[in-house]
Design goal:
Strand order of the largest sheet: 1-9-8-5-4-2-3
Structural class: alpha/beta
Strand content: 5-15%
Distance between the termini: 24 Å
Shape: globular
Number of strands: 12
Bound molecules: pyridoxal-5'-phosphate
Helix content: 40-55%
Order of helices and strands: HHEHEHEHEHEEEEEHHEEHHEH
Number of helices: 11
Radius of gyration: 21 Å
Length: about 375
């Protein structure tokens, strides 16, 4: 069994993906070709924002946003303690300081109370200037932007939505990647909408920020590529990746999102009495980048993973280490606030095979294996 079966997806979409690849080769417009512009227009329309600026990967998308806002040394940026490393890494890369915020035990997403505590602590300490918040739409579900926005407004902070895993999710009828002042996503192959290599995008309604992001992604270009008005990056989405994304985006909208939600319901009805199944609060909709359970107290996650593996069932631990315990951040935070929820989650989460092409037989096989192991 595959954890995320990209081969099955390719087989389903083969004619359109093959022609996208061959057409790009024939056009030889490998950089900034027509499919890039087309994809940007389609993604912006879908998300419901004015501008989509594609780039080389989801990490660069976050970096582009921080550059647009001029985030620099001495600035504090609030990120969840429970996330992929890139969310914090980009902050440090700009010379600013990530401040880790605990998450909500039910949704795994940034907790607004912990956020406000962290902001107050930074203000009291007085050595950093709070500038921005980066909520993450973890495992496909948008963070609680209603609660986070209230805190952001109270302290005059920007909200940067890290929607790397969130594309396709919704909150109160609004699409993920349209919930921040700037939002970003990733097209890494295993993300909800993935390409055939690395890719990413920045979304915003702000004309000035969109123009800046477009400049930063091409060496700080001014009126044209060889007029360089600021220090930028080389971070464009390859034409071939945009060409592959076009038919994949159609399938994503037409049935893949429905399919992962169907799979999640089927997992949860079979597992809800055995383990802690993932919660989707009222008004929220997930694109299920991961289906992540909590292993019950007293059950060994390592042994469960081994038992699954013995039956050819892959599983993953996202994430085994809180940000504040990462070696790269060991120097950073002697006076940080504790993040007990993240510490608990990092010991008990387990992600199961999940993708739009999983079958009911596969779901049942995974659930039966878990049931047998947990022995309920
Ligand atoms: C994958 C991911 C990123 C980085 O995306 P890349 O395209 O791999 O650079 C950033 N944040 C989160 C939460 C992610 O899951």
């Amino acid at each position: 069994m595959q954890f995320r079966d990209l081969k099955r997806q390719y087989e389903a979409l083969k004619p359109s993906i093959d022609s996208a690849l061959l057409d790009t080769a024939a056009s030889s417009a490998f950089i900034m070709g027509q499919p890039v512009k087309k994809l940007e227009a389609m993604l912006a329309e879908y998300v419901g924002v004015k501008h989509c600026i594609t780039c080389a990967n989801g990490t660069d998308a976050l970096t582009l946003a921080l550059k647009v806002w001029g985030i620099k040394e001495g600035d504090a940026v609030f990120v969840p303690d429970f996330t992929f490393f890139a969310t914090a890494e980009v902050v440090s890369f700009e010379g600013a300081t990530p401040v880790f915020v605990d998450v909500d035990a039910a949704t795994f997403n940034m907790d607004a109370f912990s956020l406000e505590n962290a902001i107050q602590k930074v203000l009291e300490a007085g050595n950093l200037t709070p500038k921005a918040i980066i909520p993450v739409d973890l495992f496909g579900m948008p963070a609680n932007y209603l609660a986070i926005r209230k805190v952001a407004d109270r302290y005059g902070l920007w909200v940067l939505e890290d929607g790397a895993q969130g594309f396709g999710g919704r909150m109160q009828g609004r699409l993920a990647c349209g919930l921040g002042d700037i939002s970003t996503t990733s097209f890494f192959p295993a993300k909800p909408l993935g390409c055939y290599g690395d890719g990413g995008a920045v979304f915003t309604n702000n004309d000035e920020w969109a123009a800046l992001a477009d400049s930063y992604r091409v060496h700080g270009k001014g009126a044209f590529k060889y007029d360089n008005v600021r220090i930028g990056m080389n971070s464009r989405l390859d034409t071939i990746q945009a060409a592959v994304l076009l038919p994949k985006f159609e399938a994503f909208k037409r049935y893949e999102l429905d399919q992962v939600n169907w799979a999640a319901v089927n997992y949860s009805t079979r597992l809800k009495d055995i383990v802690i199944t993932p919660q989707v609060p009222q008004g929220f909709y997930s694109s299920w980048a991961q289906y992540t359970i909590l292993v019950p107290k007293g059950v060994s996650r390592t042994d469960l993973q081994a038992a699954l593996k013995a039956q050819d069932i892959p599983s993953m631990v996202y994430y085994p280490k809180p940000m504040h315990l990462q070696t790269a951040y060991s120097q950073l935070l002697s006076d940080a606030l504790p993040c007990p929820v993240t510490e608990m989650l990092s010991e008990r989460v387990l992600s199961l095979p999940m993708h739009p092409y999983i079958t009911i037989e596969e779901i049942e096989r995974v659930c039966n294996a878990i049931r047998t192991f947990v022995n309920v």
